[in-house]
């Protein structure tokens, strides 16, 4: 039973991380159009399932009743959700205005803001910021850094003997360092 719980928690974690990564890599996707209930589901998979099921498994190992095991699961789930919300809130509730902290556009405060503001106004705000970034030197600097790391990757590949595998790895570098 414990092995099944931990295995399913790892499966949930992998599914949650896969979902986060697949959504963030989609082209033309500034942010997910998610509701707070969808946010909760995603956070459960990627953050809470492991703690919740570990707490439940500990009670199983201690031979507690199913009711106690469920309470341990609920504790782990809600403790982890609180921790994630606390983390998401930090960039917005810090006392010092000089502390600029990075935050996800899919954090709880951003998702609530999107719900209250409306999707169209939310996208307009993000597009205005995107245009400001494009107008600055950040994009060209990031492209230069990308190409620098690509050159270093190719230099490291040169240490290997020529082969189809080496050529394929070099092609990956060429693909990720090519910009319009």
UniProtKB/TrEMBL annotation:
Superkingdom of this protein's organism: Eukaryota
Gene Ontology CC entries for this record: mitochondrion; transferase complex
InterPro entries cross-referenced by the UniProt entry: Isoprenoid_synthase_dom_sf (IPR008949)
GO molecular function: prenyltransferase activity
Gene Ontology biological process terms in this record: isoprenoid biosynthetic process; ubiquinone biosynthetic process
Protein's recorded name: DLP1 synthase
Gene name per UniProt: Pdss2
